[in-house]
Amino acid sequence: MSKRAEGSPMIVTLSGTNDFLIESELKKLISEFRSKNDSADIEQIDASESDLQAIIEAVTNLSFLEPNRFIVLRRGSSNKPFMEAIEKILSNTPSTNELIIIEPNIDKRLSYYKTLKKNTDFRNYDLLEFGQIANWIVQITKDRGGIIDMTDSRYLIEVAGNNQLRLDSEINKLLNYNKSISRESIDLLVEPIPQTTIFQLLDAAFSGNRKELLRIYDDQKKQKVEPQQVIAMLAWQLHILALIKAAGNMSPGDIAKNSKVSPFVINKSLAISKRMTRSDLQKLTNNLLELDVKLKTQTIDADDALLQLLLTIEK
Fold it and tell me: Cα(310)–Cα(60) distance, rounded to whole angstroms?
């Protein structure tokens, strides 16, 4: 329910890491506004590209031509003057205006956050856990007249990642191809996210699956992915593995919470972490750093050097 006393404006903050749920809630609020008002005066403001005075006028002004206004304000936290004036802006917002503030990644230490939390209808939408997303995929596919089993639902997440906005789009694409979504159609139509590809690359290397490693690497070359990009993504994955190793017997959920890394990423990396020792991790990290330095200081074949590094991983 909105924190809206009689005669006061409706001010809602949509926050969190789940873009899909935030945008879905925004669409719902816009639909409700339009159903109650003949006019459709909906104004979108990007605070990162607007000066403070323009924002104040847009939010606090009354309109005689459009008595009921709906204002969507994004990225307020990127505008320092706006953050400093937020309490005054909220208190001066007319009761006829509906203000929706969208702040996906807001620093909870800021007084700006505390003001929004205290003085607005603050709604937080975080990414779902792996199992929750898998269930959501099965249900939304069914709602759209299709079918996907739980195994293929989980596989779709592994390939496309856990961003529901992207998954929503991929599901529509897959259903347009075939109402029965399968692993085969996912492989045919869904482009793996870079993190998934790097995970598969390391998994093949530590499994000693040279054929699969060569296939994945060759596929990256065909897609014109530069070796430097692969190195950066490998470094990111090694960082995740180091977090898991350092956590000891801590649960995946606690690791994700303490490290502020997606639970999906932590769970996905656990299998590799169990097949490598701290020594393995340190050796690969050092080798990757050495290669990065060579690429920046020497003239060498980057593709060949990176592939040789991966092929020398012994497990």
Answer: 59
Could you give the C-alpha distances from 9 to 60, 68, 119, 126, 206, in angstroms and in order? 10, 10, 11, 26, 58
- Residue 97 DSSP SS3: strand
Q: What is the rounded distance in angstroms from the CA atom of residue 221 to the CA atom of residue 232? A: 15
- The architecture in CATH of the region 130-189 reads Orthogonal Bundle (1.10)
- CB neighbourhood size of 32 (10 A): 13
Map residue 12 onto helix, strand or coil. Answer: strand
CB 156 within 8 A of CB 184: no
On whether the pTM is more than 0.85, the answer is no
Q: What are the structure tokens assigned to 49, written together? A: 């590209």
Both tokens assigned to 179: 């109402």
What type of residue is 269?
S
**Is pLDDT at 1 greater than 60 in this prediction?**
no
Report domain 194-311's class.
mainly alpha
Residues 6+ apart with CB under 8 A from 73: 45, 47, 55, 59, 99, 100, 101, 102
What are the pLDDT digits (tens) for 208-261?
888 888 888 888 777 777 888 888 888 888 898 999 999 888 888 888 878 877
What's the rounded mean pLDDT across residues 286-291?
Answer: 90
DSSP 178: -
The residues spanned by each domain of the chain are 10-124, 130-189, 194-311
CB 120 within 8 A of CB 101: yes
Among the CATH numbers 3.40.190.10, 2.60.120.620, 3.10.450.50, 3.40.50.300, which is that of 10-124?
A: 3.40.50.300
Of the candidates 75, 113, 110, 104, the residue with the CA atom closest to the CA atom of residue 15: 104
